[in-house]
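User: Predict Acetylesterase's structure from this.
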Amino acid sequence: MKPENKLPVLDLISAEMKTVVNTLQPDLPPWPATGTIAEQRQYYTLERRFWNAGAPEMATRAYMVPTKYGQVETRLFCPQPDSPATLFYLHGGGFILGNLDTHDRIMRLLASYSQCTVIGIDYTLSPEARFPQAIEEIVAAYCYFHQQAEDYQI
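Assistant:
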């Protein structure tokens, strides 16, 4: 990422919001705006700890799905044995950051509130994956589960 695209976000937020951020995670250092992609990802994972606390418990299964690029990890959250529908969830992070662990709680909450099975897809991130790899992995995962819906009870 170019330095001119990196903003010192904590310097730009209101004093009230700084209080909220410091209250939520007082031990978290400032975002490494000039850090490498690996450092940004590591920080994002640390930052997401707070947001993942207190997630509802439910049956969770992990599966590796074949794609033309290799295996992609997926995670199924099943709030009830016979869910009426299935929701496919793509984690945030701009296709550069994030994974199934950083968005675990939101997937559990979606499953719990909707009573639907939620399938999270851990597509390959950029810059390691060049467009359209992540999109093709997502489509491959969707097709895989759609074609085998009965086997996965979705």
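The mean pLDDT is 89.
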